[in-house]
Design goal:
The structure is a single chain. By secondary structure, the chain is of the alpha/beta class. The chain folds into four domains: 54 residues, N-terminal domain of TfIIb, CATH 2.20.25; 245 residues, Rossmann fold, CATH 3.40.50.740; 188 residues, Dimethylsulfoxide Reductase, domain 2 (3-Layer(aba) Sandwich); 125 residues, Barwin-like endoglucanases, CATH 2.40.40.20. 31% of the residues lie in helices and 17% in strands. The strands form seven sheets. The chain has a six-stranded mixed sheet with strand order 5-4-17-16-15-6, covered by helices on one side. A six-stranded mixed β-barrel has the order 22-26-23-25-24-27. The chain has a five-stranded parallel sheet with strand order 10-9-8-12-13, sandwiched between helices. A hairpin with an 8-residue loop joins strand 4 and strand 5. The protein is globular and about 70 Å long. Bound molecules: ligand MGD (2 copies) and molybdenum atom (MO). The site of one ligand MGD has 36 residues, from helix 18 and strand 16.
Length: 698
C-alpha cells in the first residue's frame, strides 16, 4: 500500500459464507477505507455487492468493533471485561491450555469454527495446524453443505454439477428449496437472462420467499417431504415414457430397481404426503421432462432435515432420468466447492499430516451436547471459538448457552464483535476484518479465485487469525517451520497446483487483476456422456455403497424425525413444523445482526403462520405470540396469511438472542439431531406450538 498516496484503490474479495464470493474494490484515503464497490469487470459480481456488504466499511470502522485483547472480570456471560496486553492474553491462554493438556489430555480442548471468513488463509490455515499439532478434539464442520453434498454424491459420485453461468441456456429452471434472491443474489442475474430468453422459473418451497414471489410458478410442499415429490415426478416421467431410455441404458445403474420403487409413489400418494395437488405434480413432472434444457438448482436449505441427505440423493436422480445432463444448461446446479479441492494445493495449506485421525471428533451441530455432557472422557475443559457465533447459529440454543456459562470451561473467543458467544469468553481477542488482512478466496458458488489484499492497517490492536495462532504456537513451543509461514507464503503454496484448472493463475497474476476464473472448459457439460465419478462410473439410481452403510440403496422418502408422523406423542403436544431459514435479507447468518443499520432494516423477527392455524388459535396478524417446545420459548409477533403452508411456522434465523424480543432467537427451538448422511443438522425438523402471549381480553 503506497503510504504517500492520499487516495488509491485496493482489490479485494468479500469474505462471507455465501455462494457469490464477490470481488470488490476499496477506495482508501489517508489510511481509512472510504468507499467500497463490487468489481465492475468481474463477470459474476458485475459491479454490485448486496444490501449487507454495501455497508462493510461501516462494519469495519464502526463503534461495535473489538479492538483490544480483553479478559473477563464479571460472571460468565456478563460481558464484563478489562483490557489486557497481547502478551498477557496469549500467556494466559498458553498456560491454561498447557495445564488442561497435562491434566486431561489435549482432547479436552475443542476448537470451534466455521466460515465467518471463507478465505483459504484466515479460515483455518494456521489454526488447523495449531489444533492438530496440539492433538485437540477434531471438529466435524458439517453444519452446512455436508448432508446435501453427501446425498448428491451418492447418486453422482461428487456433488458438483454444472457451472452457474450455464443457467442462461436453461429454459426450465427449478429453484428447489433455495431462496436465490436473498441468499445467492448474483445468480439471479443469470436466471433473469434465461427468463428473458423464455425460461420458466419454478420455485419449490413451503414458504412464500422473495424468490417465490418472482417465480412463474410456486410449488409448496410441506417441509421435509420433497423426496416424495421427486419420486412422484419420476413416477409420472417413467409412466408417460418421458424418460431418456438411451441415456439411462448407457450411463445409469439400477433403473429396474428404481422403476419398482417408483411404483410406490403415484402422485395421489405424494399429494397426501406433500400437500401438492396431483395435477400440479403431473404438470411439474411433464414440464420438467419436456422443456429443454432443464436445470434444478439446489443449495442448502433443503438439507437441514433429518432426511436431508436422502432428499438430495433423490432429487439428483431426476436429471439422469430425463437425460437433462446432455444439454448445455441442463442437469443439476449444486455447490461447486469441489473446484477448490481440485484446483488448489490444499495439502500445503491444511497440512493433513499433522492430523491424528484416532483422536475423537465432535460434530459442531451438537456443541450444546458436547459442552454439557459430563460423561465425555475427557469432558471439554477448553473451548476456542473463531469465525463462528455458536450462541446464535447452533441448534438447541439454551443448551449451548448452558454449556458456555460453565464457570469451569476455559473459553477463548477470537472475534470482530461482542457476539453472544464472545460475551462468554474468558479471553476475548480482536480479529482483523477483510480490509486489514491478506487472503485468497475460493467460492462454493462459482469458478473464480479472488485475491484479497489488505487495504488498511489493522485497527486498534486487531490481528489476523493466522498471526494469533502463530504467536500461540510459539508460546506452546511448536517449532515446526509451518508455524513460521507468512500469509503470503501460504497463498503462494496454495497456488502451486498442477491441475489444468489452475494453469496460469499465480500470485502475481492475481495481484494484477484481483481475480481469475479457473480454466473450466467452455460449455462444460460434465455428464453429457456419463463419466460419473462413482465406483461404477454411472449415475447410481441403485447404490451398493449406501446399502453397505445400512442405508436405503434406492432413492426414497422417510417421514421426518419430529415433524410429519415421526413422533406421534410429540406431535400431539407440538403440532406445527418450524422452519428457521435465512430469510432476513440484511443478515448473513448471524453476522450484521448487531449492526444498527441492518437491525433497523429488519425491524423485528416475525413468526409466519397460515390463517387456518392462526384462526384455530385466535391469533390475529400482529399479535404477540409464544412459540415453544421442550427446548425453549420465543416471544414475537405473528404474521398471519399465506406466507407459509398450513401446519408450518417460519421464523428467521440469524437474530442474536441478546438482541431479540424475549431474549431468545430461532435456535432456542431447533432440534440438534444429525441428518441421515454427511452429519448435517436437522434444524428444520422441529415441532412447536404457538399461542397468544397474552389473553385476548388484556
Ligand atoms: N442474505 C443472506 N445470504 C446468505 C446467507 C444469509 O444468512 N443471508 N447465508 C449463506 C449460507 S451460509 C448459505 S448455506 C446459503 C443458503 O442458501 P439457501 O439454501 O438458499 O437458504 P436457506 O434460507 O437456508 O434455505 C432456502 C429455503 O429452503 C426452504 N426450505 C426449508 N425446508 C424445506 C423443505 O423441506 N422443502 C423445501 N422445498 N424447501 C425448504 C426454506 O423455506 C428457505 O426459503 O445462503 C448464503 N447466503
Ligand atoms: N436455525 C438455523 N440455524 C442455522 C442455519 C439456518 O438456516 N437456520 N444455517 C446454518 C448454516 S447453513 C451456517 S453456514 C451456519 C453459519 O454459522 P457461522 O459460520 O457461525 O456464521 P455467523 O453467524 O455469520 O458467524 C461468523 C462469525 O465470524 C466472525 N468473523 C468474521 N470474520 C472473522 C475473522 O476474520 N476472524 C474471526 N476470528 N472471526 C471472524 C463474525 O464476526 C461472526 O460473528 O449457521 C447455521 N445455523
Ligand atoms: Mo451455510
Amino acid at each position: 500500500m503506497p503510504e504517500s498516496d492520499t487516495k488509491h484503490i485496493v482489490q479485494g474479495a468479500c469474505p462471507h459464507d455465501c455462494p457469490d464470493t464477490c470481488a470488490w474494490r476499496v477506495t482508501v484515503e489517508e489510511g481509512r477505507a472510504v468507499a467500497l464497490q463490487g468489481d465492475p469487470d468481474h463477470p459474476f459480481t458485475r459491479g454490485g455487492l448486496c444490501t449487507k456488504v454495501n455497508h462493510y466499511i461501516e462494519r469495519v470502522h464502526g463503534a461495535e468493533r473489538l479492538l483490544y485483547p480483553m479478559r473477563r472480570v464479571g460472571p460468565k456471560g456478563s460481558g464484563q471485561f478489562e483490557r489486557v496486553s497481547w502478551d498477557q492474553a496469549l500467556d494466559q491462554i498458553a498456560s491454561r491450555l498447557t495445564d488442561i493438556v497435562t491434566r486431561d489430555g489435549a482432547s479436552a480442548v475443542l476448537p470451534y469454527s466455521y466460515l465467518g471468513t471463507q478465505g483459504l488463509i484466515q479460515c483455518h490455515a494456521m489454526s488447523q495446524r495449531f489444533f492438530n499439532r496440539l492433538g485437540a478434539t477434531r471438529l466435524v464442520r458439517a453444519i452446512c453443505g455436508s448432508a446435501g453434498g453427501t446425498g448428491v454424491s451418492a447418486t453422482n459420485g461428487v456433488s458438483m454439477g454444472i457451472m452457474p453461468e450455464e443457467v442462461v441456456h436453461s429454459r426450465h429452471i427449478i429453484l428447489w428449496g433455495t431462496n436465490t434472491v436473498v441468499t445467492n443474489l448474483h445468480l439471479w442475474h443469470f436466471i433473469k437472462e434465461a427468463k428473458h430468453a423464455g425460461a420458466r422459473i419454478v420455485v419449490i418451497d413451503p414458504a412464500k420467499t422473495r424468490t417465490a414471489e418472482q417465480a412463474d410458478w410456486h410449488v409448496r410442499p410441506r417441509p421435509g417431504t420433497d423426496a416424495a415429490l421427486a419420486l412422484a415426478m419420476m413416477h409420472v416421467i417413467v409412466r408417460d415414457g418421458l424418460h431418456d431410455v438411451d441415456y439411462i441404458a448407457r450411463y445409469t445403474l439400477g433403473f429396474d430397481k428404481l422403476h419398482a420403487r417408483l411404483a410406490e409413489y403415484p402422485p395421489s400418494r405424494a399429494e397426501l404426503i406433500t400437500g401438492v395437488p396431483v395435477h400440479d405434480i403431473e404438470a411439474l413432472a411433464r414440464a420438467y421432462a419436456t422443456t429443454r434444457p432443464s436445470v434444478i438448482r439446489t443449495l442448502v436449505g433443503l438439507e437441514h432435515h433429518a432426511q436431508g441427505g436422502m432428499t438430495y440423493r433423490t432429487i439428483a436422480c431426476l436429471p439422469a432420468l430425463t437425460g437433462a445432463w446432455r444439454d448445455r444448461g441442463g442437469g443439476l446446479l449444486h455447490l461447486v466447492g469441489r473446484l477448490r479441492t481440485l484446483a488448489l494445493n490444499n495439502a500445503a495449506v491444511d497440512m493433513p499430516q499433522l492430523e491424528d485421525t484416532r483422536i475423537r471428533s465432535i460434530n459442531m451441530v451438537q456443541i450444546g451436547r458436547a459442552l454439557t455432557d459430563t460423561s465425555l472422557a475427557p469432558p471439554i475443559h477448553a473451548l476456542v471459538v473463531y469465525n463462528s457465533n455458536p450462541a446464535a447459529i447452533a441448534p438447541n440454543q439454551n443448551l449451548v448457552l448452558e454449556g458456555l456459562k460453565r464457570e469451569d470451561l476455559f473459553t477463548v473467543v477470537i472475534e470482530q464483535f461482542m457476539t453472544d458467544t464472545a460475551r462468554h469468553a474468558d479471553i476475548l481477542l480482536p480479529a482483523t476484518s477483510q480490509l486489514e488482512h491478506l487472503d485468497l478466496l475460493w467460492s462454493w458458488g462459482h469458478a473464480y479465485l479472488t485475491l484479497n489484499l489488505p487495504a488498511i492497517a489493522p485497527l486498534g490492536e486487531a490481528l489476523p487469525n493466522t498471526e494469533i495462532f502463530r504467536r500461540l504456537a510459539q508460546r506452546m513451543g511448536f517449532d515446526e517451520p509451518c508455524f513460521r509461514e507468512s500469509d503470503e507464503d501460504i497463498v503462494r503454496k496454495a497456488l502451486t497446483s498442477t491441475h489444468p484448472y489452475a494453469r496460469g493463475i499465480t500470485f502475481e497474476s492475481l495481484q494484477q487483476k484481483g481475480w481469475a476464473r479457473l480454466n473450466i472448459p467452455e460449455g462444460y457439460r460434465p455428464y453429457a456422456e456419463g463419466n460419473f465419478p462413482t465406483t461404477s462410473g454411472k449415475c447410481e439410481f441403485y447404490s451398493e455403497a449406501l446399502a453397505g452403510q445400512g442405508l436405503d440403496p434406492l432413492p426414497g422418502y422417510t417421514p421426518a424425525r419430529e415433524s410429519h408422523g415421526g413422533d406421534q406423542a410429540l406431535r400431539a403436544r407440538y403440532p406445527l413444523s418450524l422452519v428457521t431459514a435465512k430469510s432476513a435479507l440484511h443478515f448473513l447468518n448471524s453476522s450484521y445482526a448487531n449492526m444498527p443499520r441492518q437491525l433497523r432494516a429488519e425491524k423485528e423477527p416475525l413468526a409466519e403462520i397460515h390463517s387456518i392455524d392462526a384462526t384455530e388459535r385466535t391469533i390475529a396478524d400482529g399479535d404477540l405470540v409464544r412459540i415453544f417446545n421442550d427446548r425453549g420459548t420465543l416471544q414475537l409477533r405473528a404474521r398471519v396469511g399465506d406466507g407459509v403452508v398450513p401446519g408450518m411456522i417460519a421464523v428467521p434465523s440469524g437474530w442474536w438472542a441478546s438482541l431479540s424480543p424475549g431474549g431468545s432467537s430461532a435456535n432456542a427451538l431447533t432440534a440438534d439431531g444429525l441428518s441421515d448422511m454427511g452429519g448435517g443438522g436437522d434444524f428444520h425438523d422441529t415441532l412447536v406450538q404457538m399461542e397468544l402471549a397474552r389473553p385476548v381480553n388484556e
